[in-house]
Amino acid sequence: MTLAMVEEIRQRLTTALQPVELDVVDEGYKHAGHANEGKGHFHVRIVSAAFAGQLPIKRHRLVYAALGELMDHGIHALSIDAKSPD
Predict the structure, then answer these.
(1) InterPro entries from the xrefs (predicted)?
(2) Each residue of 24-80: pLDDT tens digit?
(3) How far is CA 75 from the centre of its chain?
(4) Percent of the chain surpassing pLDDT 70
(5) What is the pLDDT of residues 14-37, one digit of tens each?
(6) CB 56 within 8 A of CB 20
C-alpha cells in the first residue's frame, strides 16, 4: 500500500507542478504505535518553478491542491519542503 501511495503522490505532484526535483519518502516507520499505526506519514521535498515568488504557505497549498482527496484518504501526515529552483 505505501509503495503505491508513494507512486501516486509522485505522479500527482509531477503532473500538477512539473518539478525539477522530487523526493517522496514514506516515514510511517517513525510513527509506529501512533494513531493509524504510522500509516500514511510522508515527507515531500519538491523543487518547482511553480513556487517562484510564492510564500511558503502558498507553496504548501499548491502541494495540497495537487494531492487532492489523498489528503483525506491515504495521507495521515505530510511534511513538505517546497522550494523554487532559484
Answers:
(1) BolA, BolA-like_sf
(2) 999 887 766 655 554 688 999 999 999 999 999 999 999 999 999 999 888 888 999
(3) 9
(4) 87
(5) 999 999 999 999 988 776 665 555
(6) no
Residue 7, all three cell numbers: 507512486
DSSP string, the chain: -HHHHHHHHHHHHHHHH--SEEEEEE-GGGGTTSGGGGTTEEEEEEE-GGGTT--HHHHHHHHHHHHGGGGTTT-SEEEEEEE---
* Domain residue spans of the chain: 2-83
Contact 15, 48 (CB under 8 A): no
Q: Is the whole model's pTM more than 0.85, yes or no? A: yes
